[in-house]
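Hi support team,

I'm filing this because I wasn't sure whether my run with adenosine-5'-triphosphate finished correctly. The job status page said complete, but I'd like someone to confirm that the output block is well-formed before I use it downstream. Pasting the exact inputs I used:
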Amino acid sequence: MTIVLDARDLERRHALEGSEVTALRGVSLQVEEGEYVAIVGPSGSGKSTLLTLLGGLDLPSSGSVAILGASLSALPDRALTRLRLERIGFVFQRFHLLPVLTARENVELPMAEMGVAPDARRARAAELLAYVGLADRSGHRPTQLSGGEMQRVAIARALANRPAILLADEPTGELDAATGREILALFRRLHADGTTLVVVTHDERVTSEASRVVRMLDGRIVD
Ligand SMILES: Nc1ncnc2c1ncn2[C@@H]1O[C@H](COP(=O)(O)OP(=O)(O)OP(=O)(O)O)[C@@H](O)[C@H]1O
Ligand SMILES: [Mg+2]
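And here is everything the job wrote out:
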């Protein structure tokens, strides 16, 4: 089995007004290709901190993260940006779409950053928007979309460069129950189609669908 994600002994400390807050206290996590991992735990237990480290959006105080054998911490900034763009898809609770761009342009953006030719990225964006059920919304800007639609665009964008792993932090947190169910159905389909997923959630429905549930408490993984 291929290990897609290998995190070792992650610690993250924040200096805060002369004192120190420890958000993570030694977390190790390996994720195999095709797994659907749910990360759960009380507020403040370190879930988002862990996910941002796994996605290379932040660096650990100590410990290491590797995606398909490539270590994130060993890289200079530009190489890290490139690796993130190529291998990691990230989905946020509040979508983080660019408001001035249409749905299609938002999905194209990570491909443009990778230097994909306009025709090719346009075709891929159309394919992805169809995959998430939004073929007829490609010209809409975020303000012209519902919350669930915005999240589906964000998921399409995260998939644009065919990442090795998709990371999502509370992807249903801003959505009503029915819309949240649609997003979870999309994750289920992604999993069935072979995508490797790590989803932070308070949502018990995710934990019943995931192939593995990781529980966090006070900056650690507990069993
Ligand atoms: N930039 C920061 N500076 C100082 N402390 C921080 C910082 N970021 C996070 N923390 C602290 O680290 C701990 C873990 O935060 P984190 O956001 O990872 O929790 P969480 O499990 O995602 O919680 P929630 O379920 O509420 O989203 C918290 O005690 C938080 O206050
Ligand atoms: Mg959080």
